Records
---
Amino acid sequence: MGFRDCQVVAPIALVGCDWARRIGRCYHEYRAAYSRTNVLAYVHCSVMPKHPALTRDLSGRGISRRAFLKFCSVAASVLALPPEAVGSLVESLGHSARLPIIWLSFQECTGCTESFTRSHAPAVEDLLFDYFSLDYHHTLQAPSGADAESARLDSMRRFQGRYLLIVDGSIPLARGGVYSTIGGRTNLAMLKECGEGAAAVIAVGSCAVFGGLPAASPNPTGAVGVLALMEQGLIAKRPLVNLPGCPPLPIAISSVLAHYIAFGRFPAVDDMQRPLSLYGNTVHERCSRFRFFEERKFVKQFDDEGARKGWCLYLLGCRGPLTHNACAVHKWNQGTSFPIESGHPCLGCAEPGFWDRGGFYRCIDETECTVDESHESREDAASEGQNLYEDNCVYCHSIDPGALRTDPNQIPHLLRSGEIRSHRRLQFSDEQLDQLGEYLKSRK
């Protein structure tokens, strides 16, 4: 059966090609790519083509078993699986069949798709994606219009109760959902239809999870997330995992997919249906600048001395203490960095309502910020006081001010009074005397 003799159900060849080759090809180039790589996965014929098990196809693609085992170890680590689970992951992935996936994009910006295509980990991850059948995806599929919708319906019919549904973007409910339609149908109607036959659902990105930026006050489109629709009974309840973030980490998407393929279920989740291995801790708890928070060393404005030294960004509005995500661990751009490490405060994009919590550069706790400022002022005063002591006092007193018998709280008062004749020659201002007092108190 040739390419022209069948209806392609939108398989996506993601193996061994860069971003330009994944997305930039025209339709005819996609056809040629499918023919060359033999990935005409699903066609209008009675029998679904059989694919070799993953491990049997490794050597032909130049992927060693060592690399495959490394990927499984990385995936198990990301998902916080016990060591004994690595063997099960290797066995299950090695013999996995192609998993049909329908990806619905609603009110979104395509950022989550961008993140998905940049999953790095070991290179064998790309090979793993070849064993998904991404049967419907607005951005990545070759067909369009009526052909695309026909492909979606065909996949739903063939794999009723077996396909994985991925939702990207919020769903508008206001005015009957007319603010976003696909092929003349509202997002809610399409989601309800696809959800009926899905084995499970993944909500990718903060828009699909919480409503995202489209739900920002006053939320003119009535945007909501997938979980809210399930709780309201507007769509069928199915096993659900939420991957918030704007966008979520690439490894968050790929590792959850790997877990589902290997074990037929999602990893353990919290009360918001987020994987505990990825969202169980705050960004703050695993931040590379955490020690500066403990030491109360804060950046006060961009490009000040603290910023150049990599101090904590808490005073500039960093929401790391409130945000549950794994950015500080897995990072972006193949593990290169993440916003805080690059010098910008966390915006809290993985939390509900982050877009309506006031200015991004306002400290999240004004009281705490005031305390921090006072603390830093005392530290600065003590530093200046140390200079005064070492320049004027060490000639008559111990170099260690802790050896002084006089109560350090009384020393500024005594110097101001002039009662100590030998100290009358010292012309300290009131500010300098306060600084000296702070230093002496800090050494007791």
---
Amino acid sequence: MEKETRTLETLQLSEGITVLGYWKPGLAFKQTLHEKTELRRLRTLRHTRFGNWLVGLSPITRYPVLLLSFPEYCLKAFFISLWNRPQFIACHNLILLPLAAIIKVLCRSRLVYVPHELETHRTGLVGPLKTVSKISEKLFIRFVDSTVVVCDPIARWYESAYRIPKVHVVPNVPYHPCPGNLFPRTNLLREHFSIPENDLICIYQGLVSKGRGVEDLLDLFAELPPHLHLVVMGYGELTELVKSKSHEHPNIHFKEAVPVGEILAWTSSADVGLFFNSKSMTLSYQYSLPNKFFEYAIGGLFIVISDNFVEQCRYLHEHQLGMAVTPKLESLKQTLLSLSKSQVAESVSRSAEFRRTIGWQSFAEVYRYAYTGDE
């Protein structure tokens, strides 16, 4: 969101930008993000004193409060939008697309749909909810003027499934801090955990939760030689498990999530970036091209991923960023055992051009096309 709004400000497509979100205790109701961008957080029944009391009272009172909070949010967002009559509307998820379509018609706005994944094939979306999601997207995508997705396979899927014009692709890539140059490597992780200079540091960063392959990595590194280190950096439901394993095994380490502006500095102090999952995955997850993949690339890491991540594999092979393995722990184990620091250095050298040029800055014009319709 921060990258998109900053880009839209730079393109000067609007006099001001308002981002609507949920309010939670501890957050400000209004916040200035950039010079012309304001974040407004809308309070719903869920986060009132009475609502909190009902949620904690019993399941009978909890679920009505949770169900009512969403239409309450939509109603508030609707009236704010009518009052401001926006020139452009950017909708970032399927559940709000019907609301965005209604506002578009009433305000004669241009509607840009920016799903962060393949919305109707998300992990955990099953049964009646999946059916309703498919019907909703098929119906309301007709009101969309432009669609922006994170990778080519998802773009082709949307074009084929709904027979809509060209879908724009903007990968979820971070800003490159020094475009045109290789990002300078650091020793932050090695110094923070007192890891010997010749040992190999492998990192998993991002959401530390189930379904992300974290448990597989913990099991594997518990068996690997002590010169192969795993650093898990992020937050989520499995952080306590990671901390527990780090106390049992000296080559497993946990680093809490760091501010966005510091991520690359910490990432670049590792040698190998991991993204591995041995479980069956949804189509959306197979097509995923997350921020961490590009952070690994910009940070100068040798990337090792399981080959069930289709789009990541394409980037990996096309730009010689590392190695893909079969989604089996034994395959990953043999790959890591065979890696050396010299191989990591050779990989960075071969892919230097991509590593110094990939960055959000190179996709600004795609947003101009998406918002204006001009090619």
---
Amino acid sequence: MSILINKNSRVVTQGITGKTGQFHTRMCREYANGKNCFVAGVNPKKAGEDFEGVPIFATVKDAKEKTGVNVSVIYVPPPFAAAAIWEAVEADLDLVICITEGIPVRDMVEVKDRMKKQNRKTLLVGPNCPGVITPDEIKIGIMPGHIHKKGRIGVVSRSGTLTYEAVGQLMDLGLGQSTCVGTGGDPVNGLKHVDILRMFNDDPETDAVIMVGEIGGSDEETAARVGEGQHEEARRRLHRRRHRAGRQAHGARGRHHFRRQGHGAGEAGSDGGVRDQGHAESGGDGAAAAVGPVARRKAPRTPSRLRRSGKLRSMGRMRRRSRLESPP
């Protein structure tokens, strides 16, 4: 067994005619059972054509009626990606995996709100995620397939690159994976760590889970509280180990750095920083410690701030004047 996807999944690629969509659809079809799983593409302007034998339809609904797809992967450009997500949700697919990075936050807020209000059954992974892979069966996304092999360790991560690093270290130990899920690093996304942990807990072929987080948001803190009250069922069976990295990212420089990356850490308040996530560590019995507030530091005066204030210019004039007035 596995979670979310398997060799029986039927996949439609939204954005299949773009450069990125073509490349990764080709790579996914060449992996394991990909040729049987990827059965349709969507592009309203190229309906009736095909990509390497994969028929292209005008809408996701048409693709579902003709081919029976139940999973969508999205490579649509950011301005149109939210609409593509909603089109797949309206078609009542089981799962939507959005790879696209840079979708406007407001667009995602609106899509998530509509999904909640209409009580849609579709599960969303991403956006800004590497995708999902069940080794030796199917991969949907941009991860390299050759580094994975079938096993009994689940992997869930917000970071694509760290997902590959975790898989690489597992492979060095001879440990395979049941399913690897990249949940995405955007501030507004679909499935969270706790949702994936519950799925792994219900999977009889997953014995342990590696959970990888990153600065920004409070998903890791929520997952670390597994074992407290409402999350009791999600910790019943799985073995959990934790490692905290990235201590250098906290503080003013870290917040601004990750804001540029789009992780939303600068807006996360007292949750989401490296020091916060350090407080949410598991004890010997798996129970999480309380997350305490982090004292705010005054940001250091950077050269750009000095330049704006005029002090840097004044300092430069003083240096030039001293050189001119100094004796030869």
